Amino acid sequence: MISKGKLKRAKLLISCPEKPGIISSVTNFLLEHKANIVHFDQHTTDPQAGMFFMRIEFDLEEFDSSFEKLEQDLHVMARDYALDWQLGSKEKRKRMAIFVSKADHCLSELIWRWKSKEIPVDIPMVISNHSDLKELVEGNGIPFYHIPMSKETKEDAEQKALELLKGNIDFIVLARYMQILSPKFISKFPNQIINIHHSFLPAFVGANPYVRAFNRGVKLIGATAHYVTNDLDEGPIIEQDVQRINHRYTAEDLKTAGRHVERRVLAEAVSWHVEDKVLVHGNKTIVFT
Amino acid sequence: MISKGKLKRAKLLISCPEKPGIISSVTNFLLEHKANIVHFDQHTTDPQAGMFFMRIEFDLEEFDSSFEKLEQDLHVMARDYALDWQLGSKEKRKRMAIFVSKADHCLSELIWRWKSKEIPVDIPMVISNHSDLKELVEGNGIPFYHIPMSKETKEDAEQKALELLKGNIDFIVLARYMQILSPKFISKFPNQIINIHHSFLPAFVGANPYVRAFNRGVKLIGATAHYVTNDLDEGPIIEQDVQRINHRYTAEDLKTAGRHVERRVLAEAVSWHVEDKVLVHGNKTIVFT
Amino acid sequence: MISKGKLKRAKLLISCPEKPGIISSVTNFLLEHKANIVHFDQHTTDPQAGMFFMRIEFDLEEFDSSFEKLEQDLHVMARDYALDWQLGSKEKRKRMAIFVSKADHCLSELIWRWKSKEIPVDIPMVISNHSDLKELVEGNGIPFYHIPMSKETKEDAEQKALELLKGNIDFIVLARYMQILSPKFISKFPNQIINIHHSFLPAFVGANPYVRAFNRGVKLIGATAHYVTNDLDEGPIIEQDVQRINHRYTAEDLKTAGRHVERRVLAEAVSWHVEDKVLVHGNKTIVFT
Amino acid sequence: MISKGKLKRAKLLISCPEKPGIISSVTNFLLEHKANIVHFDQHTTDPQAGMFFMRIEFDLEEFDSSFEKLEQDLHVMARDYALDWQLGSKEKRKRMAIFVSKADHCLSELIWRWKSKEIPVDIPMVISNHSDLKELVEGNGIPFYHIPMSKETKEDAEQKALELLKGNIDFIVLARYMQILSPKFISKFPNQIINIHHSFLPAFVGANPYVRAFNRGVKLIGATAHYVTNDLDEGPIIEQDVQRINHRYTAEDLKTAGRHVERRVLAEAVSWHVEDKVLVHGNKTIVFT
To answer: What UniProt keywords are attached to this protein's entry (chains A, B, C, D) (predicted)?
Structure first.
């Protein structure tokens, strides 16, 4: 047995149509690759004809070579079993681009969790349609790109962003980015763009939701983090939470409370994405926490 | 000073247009009536030209006569100050009618809190459009009335219910009553009918909300208790809460979790109504908890 | 493929010292027994030399014979791999004895969840050191045994209880049972007695905890459900929760709030125990929810 | 009536022995000082012979002169009625000193809420027994003082801190300050030092609480913010909250979760203190949220 210190942790996510023996096959496969399984989560929508989801955390000896070998062999196995898979590791840090507008609460939270090493990620760039947050971003040593955007310039602006992103990032977080991305842009990052937005019970769709929630006297306000699809705010939900309020809260206080839920919910969702805990199936997620 | 044992607790709720000196006037008024104030909560939407809400809990000496005198004098004061007011006391227990259909979770919770004296209320009757819960209700010593209801018989059925209710009850709780009451019926009980319904982030308006919430992979399910107005499920919200769920929950499990939130939220709302903690203004509530 | 209707669900819990290949061995074993795995959860305290915990939910064809065969073969496998295991199924309902004293809130909650089929369990008996709850229990068709207990009669009383329980039950729930069971009694039901008690932040050990929590002005009160060991209230924790309170709550209101947390937490813990979701290791639990 | 724009908000906190007519007296007093009451909260421990607590939020015309006059007249009234009182206003920002050691999570949260104007406070200085956080503090334009502290140098170090604080601050926040302040130091700031510490159900008093909580398998971890008294961690509780964890959390993950609860709870407590929402009576608080 080699010394524990040399072991490094990796994570494998798998989705595929349900098929008898799939767990055995995968665990045997990992066993052959000298993986010591630490966590194993599995979920089936229907054991007869459903979809099968699996998340495995495991330690690898001689990480660099064994990770590479595993990756190669997974390509073969995936073909045979019609698997969708994703292999991650803290040793291969994900690269996260953050899109912001003017509000800094979600950005600050992400930066704090990054600096405190709670979210093990690289942040190669922050892109904004305003320049308000330039100082905050650059003060933390992160490159900041100001790409103004209007209806007329949208296509060009997105093109410019794409050029910056290309090959440099693994996923995007919209940390209160107040522009709607085009289907063309979104299609380049399937299940790789995370958004946060306020949520209420009941929903207040449309303009001024906080004022309307205030006028209705809601007792809870919430936030939802989700992957971005072409249906605005309707993509697969990653995380949600709420905060209790009362009649003494002004509409402004509701927004403040909303900010706190938003930054907490977004940070959790990003953290789970980074740790390869989220699988997407159709319009829903399986989150193995 | 008389012995503490003879004191009895009463509660006064007041709403009125904001006017300088209103707090002094009311507290002086209570002082003259020998009320010892225990809790005092007040809220103003706008101190210049808003609405003013007040809840006072106080102990009265020689309760029977002083309560009556207070009630009489409040009529006079209300006219002078354009007050809406409501005077309550545990000594004058509210009478609650419960409307149910087939589901027993909300009904059972209310009966349990009534029997355990947590909600100090009388239950003169339970009315149902089905007979399924007759045994449960009567087994607890509460009169049960089966009034079938269909589109055709609705008017007659409501008339029958009104006759049973008339003079016998102070408010109504719809404890999963699966019929829509007519505007005519509702108008007879303004802010005196409490309903409970499921709530989600986002909302799933229409049929099969639990199945759709399941398909969307929501992470929280909730419930809202509100006063009934003619806008279905859109009346002033009294209380809301949520429960966390995960991908392992089936659509059926979601319903089970929903039942637990519903009974908890409804029982809280009823409890606050009974203890005169809820003021309604327009389409929102002020709840002094 | 046989029709889905004939499938029946079973659950296997396994604990053992960590050993490479154990997941493969178990899943292969289940595959050979024609089990369709639905959920699979696994946890390792340390992949090199730790303990290994596994929970598998699976569907079996021709349930009666295959369940029996599986059980037999597990005995053999357990010997080879030094496994602790437990095999359960809704088809083999667990039998739960409830011990109560005078408070009915936990008992009522358990009875309600049993009657509403949320907790699929049989309740062969309720045992109490008082007769207060006899009517409630028998009114629900459950046998009630009154076994008075004092310091002097404790040994006899426990003996009497043991005779009633012997062979008739699978686990015991202390639903606010205000007697301390002897080590001798407890030793007969290792990790098979569930208790509920109040919990605070900070703890108020000793007499009158609610009064002391009130005097300290705590903002949360909680409850803990745990397996009973000889260390009073110190056994492995199954579930905990809290409820927010404020300065308007009297010491009596704190107790009321405490009752609500207690019944919710106990019911969850019992539900997880019944569904074979709880593994015990030393003085802690692994709960696969 | 003067224009609304000129109004400025103030808050009055009052504690005194219960006495009939006190509410009338105070509201009449405010009426005479042209105060428009916006919120009024009152609480009595016992209307016959208890303590009386009151919080009033009101708008003042011609703020500067009327606030001063009010303050003067309150001194007189306080003598007559044996009142403890406190008068605050956003116009008279409180000055907060922060004490830290090496952990930055609570400090960062306070700085963020200060910069985002959520907590309307001045921060004249941060004092630390280490120099690790110097850059973070100064980078935000706040003076940083490094005062090393050991058992031997404690008296001198505290003296040095006192000199820095004297006349420059209104209250102190211990944002994970890992030194125990002397009774002498504490006595200079009664109910003016706020501390945060982890809390568990049950408590794990002594060393390594997170490891012990992990070993016990707790399901919730919490935090308590309280005023500092000579009884270590036993002062009046301002706010508490918890976060749910599960068996997959390592002892290290528990600490991370603990940090999140700590910063949330501390920030709420500080916010309430700044907004004059907290009254202390003996060893408990009344928080009018």
So the answer is: Hydrolase, One-carbon metabolism, Purine biosynthesis
d(CA B16, CA B81): 8
Name which of D217, D236, D284 is nearest C236 (Cβ-Cβ): D217
- pLDDT tens per residue across span A9-66: 999 999 999 887 888 889 889 989 988 888 899 998 887 788 999 999 999 988 888 8
Burial category of D131 from C-beta neighbours within 10 Å (exposed 0-12, middle 13-18, buried 19 and up): exposed
Check residue C1 and give its pLDDT. Answer: 35
Chain D window 224-243: which residues touch A at a Cβ cutoff of 8 Å? none
- Asked if D104 reaches chain A (Cβ–Cβ under 8 Å), the answer is yes
Among partner residues A200, A240, A247, which is closest to B287 by beta-carbon distance? A247
Which amino acid, residue C47? P
Contact A24, C33 (CB under 8 A): no
Radius of gyration of chain D (CA): 21
B258 interface with A at CB cutoff 8 Å: no
Angle at CA D283, nearest 5°, toward D280 and D287? 40
pLDDT at A233: 78
Which of A24, A44, A54 lies nearest to residue C28, judging by beta carbons? Answer: A24
Three-class SS string for chain B?
CCCHHHCEEEEEEEEEECCCCHHHHHHHHHHHCCEEEEEEEEEECCCCCCEEEEEEEEEECCHHHHHHHHHHHHHHHHHHHCCEEEEEECCECEEEEEEECCCCHHHHHHHHHHHCCCCCEEEEEEEECCCCCHHHHHHCCCCEEECCCCCCCHHHHHHHHHHHHCCCCCEEEECCCCCCCCHHHHHCCCCCEEEEEEEECCCCCCCCHHHHHHHHCCCEEEEEEEECCCCCCCCCEEEEEEEECCCCCCHHHHHHHHHHHHHHHHHHHHHHHHCCCEEEECCEEEECC
Q: Which residues of A are catalytic?
A: 233
Per-residue pLDDT, averaged over C200-228, amounts to: 88
Q: For residue C247, give every residue at least 6 positions away whose Cβ sits within 8 Å of its Cβ, in sequence order, or none.
A: C217, D43, D284, D285, D286, D287
What is the SS3 assignment for D103?
Answer: coil
Residues 123-142 of B with CB under 8 A from C: 139
Say how far apart CA C287 and CA C276 lie, in whole Å.
9
Q: Which residues of D are known to be catalytic?
A: 233
Q: Answer whether D208's CB lies under 8 Å from D247's CB.
A: no
Name all domains of chain D by residue range, CATH numbers in brackets.
4-89 (3.30.70.260), 94-287 (3.40.50.170)
pLDDT of amino acid A73: 94
In terms of Cα–Cα distance, which of A257, A226, A227 is closest to A239? A226
pLDDT value at B164 more than 80: yes
A116 touches chain D (CB under 8 A): yes
Instruction: Check whether B2 has a pLDDT greater than 50.
Output: no
* pLDDT(C142) > 80: yes
C233 labelled catalytic: yes
pLDDT tens digits, one per residue of D184-199: 999 999 999 999 998 8
What distance in Å separates residue D16's CA from the closest CA in chain B? 14
Do the Cβ atoms of B108 and C104 come within 8 Å? no
Interface pTM (ipTM) of the complex? 0.90
Q: Write the pLDDT tens digit of every residue in A88-127.
A: 998 899 999 999 999 999 999 999 999 999 999 999 999 9
- Output the pLDDT for position D47: 75
Residue C99 has pLDDT above 50, yes or no: yes
Mutation target for A interface from C11, C12, C43, C44: give the one with most A CBs within 10 A: C44
Give the list of residues 6+ apart from residue B275 with CB closer than 8 angstroms, or none: B11, B88
pLDDT, mean over chain D: 92
DSSP string, C29-74: HHHHTTEEEEEEEEEES-TTTSEEEEEEEEEESSHHHHHHHHHHHH
